[in-house]
Amino acid sequence: MVTLGSPRRGHVVDQMRPRLLLALDVNALTPGAAIPEGTPRTRSPWAKPWLDFSDSDAGFQMLEMFVVLNAAKYPEYFQELEGMAAGSGVSMQEIMLLNFRQELSTAGGLARSPPDCSDQLLHGSTNGHALLGHNEDNSGDLLNASYFIQADLGGRQWTAFTYAGELSSTAFGFNDAGVAFTLNALFPTNVTVPGIGRNFVSRDLLQASSYEDGLRRITTARHSAGHNYNLLALPAASLVQYRSGSGPGCTGEGRMELCSSADAEARLRMATVEVGPGGVHDDLEVLKGHSYFHANSYQRLGVEQMHEESSLHRLKRAAEIAVPQGADSILKLLGDTEDAAYPLYCRGENGIYTLATALFDLQAATMNVYTGNPKAQRLQASFKLPQPPRLGFTTS
């Protein structure tokens, strides 16, 4: 069962038995190398009205409805959250508030999450680049509460940028099936109560076995609120037997091994998906020769949304800049500060900071993470994206 109230309120949702999970390797991205005891996010100034809301009869009933629905669909992810609560000394009630923050902000009339994150997708026609750059922007209280998690859970290995007290990942990550993603918050005027929380969908995306499976997990969930998913997938490596000599992309002679097949470039997949309340969605595959910029507002899906000044400014500024042609120009765009009021790279304007910039390169099969202005290309970490094998083999 999920115990929400202890120690703040003695109430139990009869849903599942608690179990500790998450013996994970944690690597620091920003200051604060480990999950701090007491998870300071629930001790920050924004937390008091949320805690007061969840202690009210109406607020607690609403939170309970979200918990029951999501625990029934994703029981294993609730076990992970119970592990966080037990390890940090924070009540499940507070952990739930963090993980349903966007849904409750609209449904309960509370202050909403910061309106930032910017993405540039590029699928080049001449050089074959398949790139995605992402600015991970958030409020100042998260400067010391973010880290990488590398995990082997549920038969899938994954790496994800994670915030203290939240499921992985509400930012960006990838798994051993060659599936990767970044996320942008969206702010519909109305939400479905109860509905599936975006944090649970993005955690589920780390379990995806393919591009198609990732799309299915995104688009079949009955979201409460909204989200933008930028989905990537590496091509599978073919098992190729070379009878003599060396084949392209392989080493050795006359042996069977995993190699990148000749049509690998054609099978690089990238899409940007907008989802609204109740699960309405629009998925746009970014085909070869195309690019796409996304911020924190609906651009294709006809969903009534809150006015978002920051997104309007960033969309306008991105349209003024020449379409990026490679990694350097994507990082330059994401580091732009020409609009002083609402820059793409945030240094505390309106309380927002760019915590990190991720650059996915599908051809190189890498995810590079930069801190500071991405124009300076101050590399913080570099990860190799796994290339999944394809069943069967061909001969040459």
From TrEMBL:
Q: Name one Pfam family in it.
A: AAT
What Gene3D superfamilies has UniProt attached to this entry? Penicillin V Acylase, Chain A (3.60.60.10)
Q: Where is the Peptidase C45 hydrolase domain?
A: 128-235, 268-375
The molecule here is called: Peptidase C45 hydrolase domain-containing protein
Native organism: Apatococcus fuscideae
